[in-house]
Amino acid sequence: MSSRVTSRSSRTSLLRTRAAVLAVGLGASVVLGAGVAAAVDATSASGTASAVKAQAAAQAKAAANAKKAAHTAAAKKAAAKAAAAKKAASWMHPVKTYKLSASFNQAGGMWQSTHSGQDFAVASGTNVVAAHGGTVVKAGGNGAGDGPAYGNAVVIKHGNGTYSQYAHLSRIDVKVGQVVATGQHIARSGNTGNSSGPHLHFEIRTTANYGSAVDPVAFLRSKGVTV
């Protein structure tokens, strides 16, 4: 009898021990699971924060680049506008490549008294441009009304009572009343009229007509043009 009681007591104690161990194991599993979950949550939160930070940095960089591009575009536009305004306000050579020949007030048998302009020796067909912006007031043969000695000629009216004349042309490509810009093509050089060879006769006048010419070289130099 005593032996049976002892045996039952031993089995009960063993069962209790197993139950305790199982309970401890389950508790450890729960605790471990919670720790793993917490670690996963922390990693996820850290990754999300990094992604948000990276996105914010990318957006800030894009905004900075856009602002820089807009500033550059505005600067280029302002520079182009300033250059256009400067060109419109400036004077320039009526032909690009030339050799100076007969000068203003030079005496000789080619003219009624003295030479009324500056000659630019160039080949026939050379591009002739407006030395300054203005309105064409004369264009045609017979010196555009100034006489046959000039051949084909053009006169442009500028501001402040200034006119420019281009003579001995082989071709005229503008008409009276046409507004031209500084540097715009107006004609081709030639050898028409009273001319000893192909060249451009260029005058600066105080009126549209013959007899009002001033020294064109001195005038251009006063406008910053090297002649």
UniProtKB/TrEMBL annotation:
Superkingdom per UniProt: Bacteria
Domain M23ase beta-sheet core: 114-216
CDD domains per record: M23_peptidase
Species annotation: Streptomyces coacervatus
Protein's recorded name: M23 family metallopeptidase
PANTHER family, per the entry: MUREIN HYDROLASE ACTIVATOR ENVC, PEPTIDASE-RELATED
Key words, A-Z: Signal
Signal peptide: 1-33
Pfam families according to UniProt: Peptidase_M23
